[in-house]
Amino acid sequence: MRFSPPFASKTIRELALSLPETYEDAPWGFPVFKVADNRMFALLGGADPVELTLKLSPEEREIAHLHPWVRTASYVGRYGWITATIEDAEALATALEWLRESYYLKAPAKLRDAAFAQ
């Protein structure tokens, strides 16, 4: 996978908006991705480096913190959110998987079942 900060932001945005009933908002001046009835599942910040803030399960959060480019999110970290600083293709690939998980955790059951039915 190639990498550049604009490519990373574009890829994250495309994946987030491809999930059922998602939309982009900017209540704090940067992109926030929400699902259904205003449930936030990701925040996209920074241009270089790109930062993605997501909600993860306790198990995945523990694994995420093993990466040097992951930290507990400001303000919402106590609720299970992390911030990933994305500076290479490996971090981007991992963050995209976490984006799917964050959507899964925040979306209503009927939406997540439809999004992940295979």
What does this structure look like?
This protein is of the alpha+beta class. The chain has helices at residues 5-18, 58-64, 89-106, 109-116, and strands at 22-25, 32-35, 39-45, 50-55, 70-72, 81-86. Strands 1-2-3-4-6-5 form a six-stranded antiparallel beta sheet, covered by helices on one side. The longest helix has 18 residues, at 89-106. The model has no long low-confidence stretch (mean pLDDT 93).
Q: Which H/E pattern describes the elements?
A: HEEEEHEEHH
Radius of gyration: 13 Å
What is the distance, rounded to the nearest whole angstrom, between the alpha carbons of the first and last residues? 24 Å
Strand content: 25-35%
Total helices: the number is: 4
**DSSP, total strands:** 6
Coarse structural class: alpha+beta
Shape descriptor? globular
Enumerate the strands of the largest sheet in spatial order, edge to edge or round the barrel. 1-2-3-4-6-5
Keywords, separated by commas or semicolons:
single chain, six-stranded antiparallel β-sheet
List the helices and strands and how they pair.
Layout: H1 5-18, E1 22-25, E2 32-35, E3 39-45, E4 50-55, H2 58-64, E5 70-72, E6 81-86, H3 89-106, H4 109-116
Antiparallel strand pairs: 1-2, 2-3, 3-4, 4-6, 5-6
